[in-house]
Amino acid sequence: MSEIKKIGVFTSGGDSPGMNAAIRAVVRSALYYNLEVVGIRRGYEGMILGEFIPMDRKSVGNIIQRGGTVLRTARSPEFRTKEGRQEAYKQLKAQNIDALVAIGGDGTFTGAKIFGEEFDFPILGLPGTIDNDLFGTDFTIGYDTSINNVVEAIDRIRDTAESHSRLFVVEVMGRDCGLIALRSGIGVGAESIFIPETKTDMEAVMHRLEIGRQDKMSKILIVAEGEGESGGAMEISEKLKKRFPHYDIRVSILGHIQRGGKPTCMDRVLASRLGVAAVESLMEGRRNEMVGLLNGKIAFTPFDHAIKHHVEINKDLFKIVDILSL
Amino acid sequence: MSEIKKIGVFTSGGDSPGMNAAIRAVVRSALYYNLEVVGIRRGYEGMILGEFIPMDRKSVGNIIQRGGTVLRTARSPEFRTKEGRQEAYKQLKAQNIDALVAIGGDGTFTGAKIFGEEFDFPILGLPGTIDNDLFGTDFTIGYDTSINNVVEAIDRIRDTAESHSRLFVVEVMGRDCGLIALRSGIGVGAESIFIPETKTDMEAVMHRLEIGRQDKMSKILIVAEGEGESGGAMEISEKLKKRFPHYDIRVSILGHIQRGGKPTCMDRVLASRLGVAAVESLMEGRRNEMVGLLNGKIAFTPFDHAIKHHVEINKDLFKIVDILSL
Amino acid sequence: MSEIKKIGVFTSGGDSPGMNAAIRAVVRSALYYNLEVVGIRRGYEGMILGEFIPMDRKSVGNIIQRGGTVLRTARSPEFRTKEGRQEAYKQLKAQNIDALVAIGGDGTFTGAKIFGEEFDFPILGLPGTIDNDLFGTDFTIGYDTSINNVVEAIDRIRDTAESHSRLFVVEVMGRDCGLIALRSGIGVGAESIFIPETKTDMEAVMHRLEIGRQDKMSKILIVAEGEGESGGAMEISEKLKKRFPHYDIRVSILGHIQRGGKPTCMDRVLASRLGVAAVESLMEGRRNEMVGLLNGKIAFTPFDHAIKHHVEINKDLFKIVDILSL
Amino acid sequence: MSEIKKIGVFTSGGDSPGMNAAIRAVVRSALYYNLEVVGIRRGYEGMILGEFIPMDRKSVGNIIQRGGTVLRTARSPEFRTKEGRQEAYKQLKAQNIDALVAIGGDGTFTGAKIFGEEFDFPILGLPGTIDNDLFGTDFTIGYDTSINNVVEAIDRIRDTAESHSRLFVVEVMGRDCGLIALRSGIGVGAESIFIPETKTDMEAVMHRLEIGRQDKMSKILIVAEGEGESGGAMEISEKLKKRFPHYDIRVSILGHIQRGGKPTCMDRVLASRLGVAAVESLMEGRRNEMVGLLNGKIAFTPFDHAIKHHVEINKDLFKIVDILSL
């Protein structure tokens, strides 16, 4: 295959903490191996519009600790069209970019797969999303930070809940995936956790709350935002208020604070390892795969595998919630 | 007047970070001056029900760093009635408690004033509330921590806003008072701040956003929760979405994370100084006043003064928002 | 084997963040399975002296977020003697404790193994140490929090280093083990990392610093405290000062801030999973093993295996340091 | 006087958190009032070498939350000489800079005063230093953040101290000034605080420790780095070890983590208010003064007054340490 001389790197989809560390790793690795490297602003949208920015060692100095992404991100309806992708390809060729590293989630990889096959273009992906729902990596870049953001926020809520003997229903991110809710729920000693993957027995939840009420102590219920069955945080709190009219019940929607802020050490190290591996692997001729870390080792998973397979929820984790909150 | 021998201390109203540091200061000061000291759980409610807990040096060991209040707090409709207060007085007498330190906000002081006058009972108050709306103290215990909680949360939101070029409308606490919104707004470089005390010119806000849009950069608007004029965070965001259909606009309701968590150094020191002063002042015969810190010096303000006077919003601070966000 | 009815739990060796979450998990699991559970203060020392404290659900309420250990820890020279252990055994029998969960590191497990064999006493261990140097678990309870503590501290140092174009030599914990230095070093973009497991080429380090000096930018060198070859942080900084007299070089010994503070989500979840598994496994008849998590699954490793085998340093991680700091 | 058209801004001396917020405020205010504004890198050194960088709105976008200073800082022996200052003046004139805002501490103001008088050059100063030892402002920019950094670090040390019943002697910054030690000492419930301004009675300290030892609880002693009388943290710990051979005593030198990291809300707001005031005041013709905040109001103090007068230590604060730690 042709030798890689110039790599383009971009971030796409929802931002996640650690994306900057990944960009830095890709840029510094490329320079280490004497390749040129170009940053593409605002994901596929910027690729189509030709928003390229040359990157050197200094461009990524000190961004390892910063949340968000310095290359920005954006939705791109145009990239879903053949014309849009054709334009993107033209722009890349005009820049002599001969390989891409795409940092994002399932939406990003869907586009990458199509583009890579359409134009026979070498492209590897790094799992940059807070959702941890990609197959082929134990953790995605940003997941560890976001569960810690949730835990920090709920530690604060716990203080006020304890002071007032309140029950808080807290909604966390996780559109189709309850992993953030589950892990952070264990981390804060939540009473119950509602996630999309399982049907929660509302009666059992009510019953346990009834027993626990004598204590007059605080209680935290976690609800993943994509959880539709029981109706989301607001509806769940309404049902609880009806059943327990004398219980002080509040709702907290954590929202976007979950995404931002400094990445944790694990996210920085993961991003760094994957970024280096991506560049080395492109040089070795790999393409159309997501680079991940499985059991501590670098692993490659074809894009469609990474997206299509659901990550199994660990049933043991659920049992732990029950045991530890009784 | 009779010599004080046994002090009761309690927290009441919404919890605020630093209340524990204040409890600790009252308890340790009382012991230092060879007085007995008793904690009363759950505010006036607990006083009526006789929920007393003897306090010693160890009871308050290491609570200086903890958010919330170890003595809890609760609403007390009963205390608003003469019978309720009569019962409370009986309970205090049964315990030989001859003076009280009440840590809370305006609701707490309203009750304290009535009770203190009704039974000729020595009671002093410490300003424990995140709202900073009490007259007679530059800062209330908990205000500094909450504005920092807001700033930390919005620093995170800023990361994701920057990555997506989004506009965020963030609602912060401050039922009748825009002080949290104002100070934290300056601290995060907010575009505009909507508070109850002033009427915000929505047209001017729209206009400035229009000018700024070319940049495609992030923007933060802060809305105090009690701000009714423009309709609260949700309504404001709706108006903005109508005017700027292509602008990515999100809402974030910070909620209860603002109250909790470790108190800042300032709140710990303020709570400590006021706690010591309260005990010393009760011993000197002072009563029916809030102990505060004005211009770095301990100051005493009769309860009704502390509550009734509105804290002036510093117009200069508003001008700074405009200057620095252009 | 005899049925377990009453479990004793203790923490021993250096404290590590997450120990409280582990204690909580052991206590709540025991209660869930209708066993009695007793806390033993101050490790083996307290066992000998009979410092037992009955534990119930409330004893461990809200300790999941707290650093340190509520059961304390202490050195115990007496436990190294046969008489001391005999006394400990007597105390356990007097309490009808028929199984133990020991939370600590290699020192703890050494004592546990000897005791367990000597008295045919069921005892399982949880890896509570910041060093991550136990065989049989990917991570120890406390490791993730301490590398994040290091990263936070160095993020701060980086701000001041950048402002002054300084070189900082930072010493981190890790008596025999460079894992904290290595991971946190990647996480902060360190120039070089000195660890006990490898011999660092001082000349190469000097050379790279020379090249980088033109930039006038900040540099961070990480030194694990047990690193003897190059002389520790102080000596290394002296050598650098001799070679680069015009370079502003400072030393920072991070010390004990690395151990404390709130455990991260990962440490809380790990501690919770292992605590539950320990109780369930004691009930199933397992003994004399450390319970760990390997590749996401609960794993059991005999005590001596857990201690004696060195954890291999991942050479890839070292290469990453070089690539990303050039 | 001549109308100001172009302002130069720089940071000098030790960096302090909030300097970036101050730079931002100066730049944005200048632009708001239609002045040009230029950043000068690396303080007086950069002024002499002509290291100017034009600043616009975007230059300071999002730096309000960042520690350190984007304009860097450096020592300048040359500026102490008449030739050096002559060269600096030449450079300013070549750039048509007609006024300066100097952000720093006493060293910075000493140079500013001399320069301003020598060349009749309008220059105002902002108090950017963690030491809070300038006369004319209740707080300096960076003081609040550094005492919070200290408090956070010691909260961590407290966890490990509690677990092991240890005594920690912690050294904090404050070369000539014990204010950081005093306020943070109260904030962490320290036993004793050693500062340069007062002579600490070592015997009394030893005596109180003796009484407290039965508890076997943790103790924290704070020592300001400039405290020479008792010998600094190391010497103090040696004396204590001799007196209490069975007491587990450790030393922690906090070092440079105290300076860095995100500024608190107070420091950001202070920096913003003073930055705006500096520009407005230069336009009104003020010069050779430090702009500060006293009792919530903008205040102007001639440079030599700001430096020469010692800030009185508040004796009450000392008494509080004793009362609350008994």
UniProtKB/TrEMBL annotation, chains A, B, C, D:
Stated regulation of activity: Allosterically activated by ADP and other diphosphonucleosides, and allosterically inhibited by phosphoenolpyruvate.
InterPro entries on file: ATP_PFK, ATP_PFK_prok-type, PFKA_ATP_prok, Phosphofructokinase_CS, Phosphofructokinase_dom, PKF_sf
Cofactor(s) the protein needs: Mg(2+)
Gene3D superfamilies: 3.40.50.450, Phosphofructokinase domain
Phosphoprotein among keywords: no
Recorded GO CC terms: 6-phosphofructokinase complex
Keywords, alphabetical: Allosteric enzyme, ATP-binding, Cytoplasm, Glycolysis, Kinase, Magnesium, Metal-binding, Nucleotide-binding, Transferase
Binding-site residues for ADP, renumbered to this chain: 24-28, 158, 189-191, 216-218
Metal-binding as UniProt keyword: yes
Domain Phosphofructokinase: 6-281
EC numbers on record: 2.7.1.11
Source species taxonomy: Bacteria, Pseudomonadati, Bacteroidota, Sphingobacteriia, Sphingobacteriales
EC main group: transferase
Pfam family, one: PFK
Known role: Catalyzes the phosphorylation of D-fructose 6-phosphate to fructose 1,6-bisphosphate by ATP, the first committing step of glycolysis.
PANTHER family assigned to the protein according to its UniProt record, in alphabetical order: ATP-DEPENDENT 6-PHOSPHOFRUCTOKINASE, PHOSPHOFRUCTOKINASE
Chemical reaction(s) catalysed: beta-D-fructose 6-phosphate + ATP = beta-D-fructose 1,6-bisphosphate + ADP + H(+)
Family under the similarity heading: Belongs to the phosphofructokinase type A (PFKA) family. ATP-dependent PFK group I subfamily. Prokaryotic clade 'B1' sub-subfamily.
Subcellular localization(s) per the UniProt record: Cytoplasm
Pathway this chain belongs to: Carbohydrate degradation; glycolysis; D-glyceraldehyde 3-phosphate and glycerone phosphate from D-glucose: step 3/4
Name of this chain's protein: ATP-dependent 6-phosphofructokinase
GO biological process, one term: fructose 1,6-bisphosphate metabolic process
NCBIfam families referenced in this protein's UniProt entry, alphabetically: PFKA_ATP (TIGR02482), PRK03202.1 (NF002872)
